[in-house]
Amino acid sequence: MTSEQSWWQTKSLAEMSEPEWESLCDGCGKCCLVKLQDYDNDDIYFTNVTCELLDTESCQCSDYAGRHAIVTDCIKLDRNNINEISWLPQSCSYRLLDAGLPLPEWHHLRSGDRQTLHSYGASLRGKVISERFVHDDDIEDHIIKWID
Ligand code: SF4
Ligand code: SF4
Q1: Which has the closest alpha carbon to 5: 75, 103, 87?
Q2: Among 26, 36, 87, 135, which residue has the least CB neighbours within 10 Å?
Q3: What is the pLDDT of residues 53-79, one digit of tens each?
């Protein structure tokens, strides 16, 4: 370990405290996109529609503490399931660190500013619509391929 290295570079995910784990999330919102699954082959398709609770401007959950009572299939990421969730974006901080890769320069832990990812276009801001404004029958029309 050199003096220049920060805690997220020296600790494994398993070694991190709960506050450290929570602070890793970059706030991109990409894990809150509505996804459709093909029941014939299990393929997953992403949309540009977000969960009803996502604030599409801040890209934050509008009821993080009470979310599971409203969105029953909201998945809480933890050290045990991080490798089992195939649909997490490549840019997800947890995926990157788990793979031994560095956090991007726009990550708040590197830039010191939680707004940096928005100015880099790395979040969902300006690219999505809430499912509150999309009829269930129209969701398939919103399937897109995200580049992350
Ligand atoms: S994709 Fe990963 S980094 Fe982005 S909001 Fe979800 S958990 Fe956080
Ligand atoms: S409930 Fe909140 S954290 Fe869960 S998917 Fe919806 S916006 Fe994201």
Answers
A1: 103
A2: 135
A3: 999 999 999 999 999 999 999 999 999
Nearest CA to ligand 1 atom 8: 25
SS3 readout for the chain = CCCCCCHHHHCCHHHCCHHHHHHHCCCCCHHHEEEEECCCCCCEEEEEEECCCEECCCCEECCCCCHHHHCCCCCCCCCCCCCCCCCCCCCCHHHHHHCCCCCCCCCHHHHCCCCHHHHCCCCCCCCCEEHHHCCHHHHHHHECCCCC
Ligand 2 proximity of 13 Cβ (cutoff 6 Å) = no
Query: How much distance in Å is there from the Cα of 140 to the middle of ligand 1?
Result: 23
- Kindly report the pTM of this predicted structure: 0.92
With a 6 A CB cut-off, is 89 part of the ligand 1 pocket? yes
CB atoms inside a 10 Å sphere around CB 137? 7
**Cα–Cα distance between 34 and 50 in angstroms, integer?**
5
